[in-house]
Design a protein that fits this description.
The structure holds 2 protein chains of 2 kinds. Chain A is mostly helical. Helices cover about 90% and strands about 0% of the residues of chain A. The longest helix of chain A has 30 residues. Chain A is globular, with a radius of gyration of 17 Å. Chain B has 6 helices and no strands. In chain B, helix 1 packs across helix 2 and helix 4 runs antiparallel to helix 5. The chains are: A mainly alpha, B mainly alpha.
Chain lengths: ~130, ~140
């Protein structure tokens, strides 16, 4: 029963952080090249545009949900299970979500990279 | 260096958040929060330049740096399994570093647009904000 709780919390972390990352990436694609924008219009405009972007705000909200899910998961399960499982599943989930929602061209090179990094993070965080 | 700093800071502030939630005035927590903010700002900047599937694996080099710092600065023992993890991450990042860093158009487009319409719409939308900012900037000056 406890492991069911832990895995639900891990899935909640993965879901929330994938949603958060996709929304943040989408927001920054809408804001555009930050360096060029800063040279043209100044840092104030960059910050104003980023903070005023709805995707950014919802992305940060999703990240906050992911953080609290992490706290729940840690209260139910061991950190040696929760940390690597959540981190590596987030990498795979992000690759899938970026392909579907951000229309990034996730070619074989990137799938392999996502898999290798997910495996590496699982080994390191465990 | 930044991601290494942010990883350290992340650990520090996380420990403090669990233990003493209201210790925001603690200098370590303050530094941790500042470094996390710096991480977030640079992360968002990177996302404005490159794909999520490029930035995310690249930032995972922070894990590698953390392990190296643990081994050579803090003189902790790093197990063979963790060295394997480091090798996997490094290899994965090497894989994407050889490819293009961005595969989408800078501005998000509607998924049902045809390719030509999409690029046209993007050019229009790209041009508009620039004009808007140019006038805004000159007003300030």
């Amino acid at each position: 029963m406890r492991s069911l709780y832990t895995w639900s919390a891990i899935l909640a972390i993965v879901f929330a952080s994938v949603v958060g990352d996709v929304l943040l990436a989408r927001a920054m694609k809408q804001v555009g090249d930050v360096g060029a924008l800063r040279r043209r219009a100044g840092l104030g405009v960059v910050i104003e545009r980023t903070l005023g972007n709805p995707s950014f705000l919802f992305g940060v909200l999703a990240m906050a949900v992911a953080f609290f899910s992490l706290l729940f998961a840690l209260s139910w399960g061991d950190v040696s299970l929760v940390a690597p499982a959540a981190a590596s599943l987030t990498f795979i989930g992000n690759a899938v979500a970026a392909k579907i929602f951000l229309h990034e061209r996730v070619d074989r090179r990137r799938w392999i990279a996502a898999g290798l990094v997910a495996a590496g993070v699982a080994l390191l965080a465990g | 260096m930044l991601s290494h700093g942010m990883k350290q800071a992340g650990n520090i502030s996380l420990n403090h958040l669990q233990g003493v939630i209201f210790a925001v005035l603690n200098p370590w927590v303050a530094i941790g929060i500042l470094l996390l903010l710096a991480f977030f700002a640079t992360y968002m900047t990177a996302l404005s330049w490159a794909d999520l599937t490029f930035v995310l694996p690249a930032t995972s080099l922070g894990y590698v740096l953390l392990a190296l710092v643990a081994r050579f600065v803090l003189h902790e023992r790093v197990s063979p399994l963790r060295w394997l993890g480091i090798a996997l991450i490094t290899g994965g990042v090497g894989f994407i570093a050889g490819g293009p860093e961005i595969t989408t158009h800078p501005v998000e487009s509607l998924p049902f647009d045809s390719v030509q319409n999409r690029s046209l719409a993007n050019e229009d939308r790209n041009a508009a904000p620039e004009l808007h900012i140019a006038t805004k900037g000159s007003e300030k000056i």
